[in-house]
Design goal:
By secondary structure, the chain is α+β, with helices and mostly antiparallel strands. It has two domains: about 60 residues; about 90 residues, no CATH class. The protein is built from three helices and five strands. The chain has a five-stranded antiparallel β-sheet. Helix 1 packs across helix 3. The longest helix is centred in the last third of the chain and has 31 residues. The chain is elongated, with a radius of gyration of 24 Å. The protein starts with a helix and ends with a helix.
Length: about 160
Amino acid sequence: MRFITIGCFVIGLIISIHLWKNDSLYLPKPVPWPTVDGKVLESSLKLLSEDAETGTSTFKPIVKYQFELRGQMLTADTVFLFDKKFDSRSDAMQVVEQFQPEQKIKVFVNPKLNDSIRSVLVWEVPEQLNGLAGIAGLLFAIGVGSLIYNLIWFLCERRFAR
């Protein structure tokens, strides 16, 4: 229990100090990757799931594109930085319609070529990542509360042990 207490306290403290030093309760937006010219090869809509009982469906836009990087022609199909699915067919189709075959496009290329995602078409970072600031505060509060509880318990134990 004490290791969990100390872990929550230390992790929460480190993240909280980092956010405080940057004078921000929110995480900074990542800087977009550099872009290169590319071309759409094909675009379509994929039905991922369909629930007949509730009448809901989940769609994913599929865009296959080609770009040149350091003298190599590469092909990719990653549209969004984070996997994005749509509950609405029309919303997903809007993405597909933005990328028509043979269309010239800008491709965001990952400067770290050894990562699994090498390129994306849409640079978009979800706002849920800002929840990390709230998690840091929660961990810090849990850690502080646990440390106070353990301190009181330790002092009471020593006092009554005499």
